Amino acid sequence: MSGKHINLTLKVWRQKGPQDKGAFAEYQAKNVSEDASFLEMLDAVNEELVAKGDEPIAFDHDCREGICGTCGFVIDGEAHGPMKSTTVCQLHMRNFNDGATLTIEPFRAKAFPMIKDLMVDRSALDRIISSGGYISANTGNAVDANAILVPKPDADEAMSSATCIGCGACVAACKNASAALFTSAKISHMALLPQGQVERKERAIRMVGAMDAEGFGACTTTGACEAACPKEIQLTNISRMNREFFVANVTKRPKHKDGGAG
Amino acid sequence: MSGFLGSTVGKKYLMGITGLIWAGFVLAHMAGNLLIFVSHDAYNAYGHALTSGNIIYVAETVLVLALIVHVFCAISLTKNNREAKEQRYAVAAGGKKKVSLASRTMAIQGSLILVFVILHLITFKYGTHYETTVNGVVMRDLARLMVEVFQSPGYIAWYVVALILLGFHLSHGVGSTFQSLGLMEGTYRDTWKKLSYTYAVVVALGFISQPVFIFLNGN
Question: What is the ipTM, given to two decimal places?
Fold first, then answer.
């Protein structure tokens, strides 16, 4: 591909494994096409490392279309780099200046244990989802469209909350490593829809409980998560989560001591 | 309810509610102090009226309890938050994803404001007891003490810095309270934000105007 090319200095966090101390290593990325994505630029750097017999830089990636939530690291202190609503796989090199030095670090959070280099274990987010981020539905034929009525504003809001791809950039960007934006997006998504009503209260209590148990911090409303989110999940979700959690706690009914029919 | 108050969200509710109690207090305190611009007698009479009844003890108890809960939750949450982020980034976010200084430094602001409140109480509430007579009633001459204290440029500088900090703390804190309590949603989001900024500026400037006015007037 033609077009402009740039040269960069990369300071990349290298860490062999969870027990290794880790440190920054410096690399030169030469003749990088401005049309390349950030991951493609790293691929080229890795090929050079492999050719020299060095260990390539480990980073997570999958779809490279900005929709799977697998990729993610921090560039110059910003999760997914400097562009708004962009994942690193969709971040293009034309957004960087020729000759720039970039510092690349993994997502940092106690709840995201280190795996290697720029890869961290984000399964804590999966455990939050499995604690309540689901609905119970009878199986069978798919119901007709609009059989269950949903007001348009609610559908829109639920949809925008549901676009969370679970990449963990919110946690990475937060000074408290809070997972409030992630958790609240799922709680909101389901609280806004009729299908989510059955487990609504239980869900809020369980998911907030799971979030705290994983060792994420609390929300201090800095807005760093919203700014970093590649899917533009709104801070208002956190407000809704807090209200859901409060209402659930004050209105939940005691569990039946005796089960059984009727 | 123990599960609720033990959670991070529950603690934020407590932070918010106790913060709002203090936010109401500082607004009333600032507004009352503006009487110094009317006359020293009006200012002293207002102070006398406030401290004459039993209501002052109720108010003080509520404020002290709210402060204890606010500080306790702040310490607990801050400790938890620091532990959750064991390792910081080598480079701080500087571009579009940067966050406001006020939101990042709430704990430091809060600590300094607490020091200010204690010193402020020592200077005024437990300061020199002058007396004056307004409309035949003998009462404390707080206005005289205030004028005396605000002759020192050093004291005024510290006072102004503390109140600017209070302004920052309120601008982020009041807005965040609406967020924490679950009210920062949709249509009213910007309204709450503007309200908290306006409120913070009014309170900070209202308080700052008094020592600066006294100092410049020289009396």
Answer: 0.90
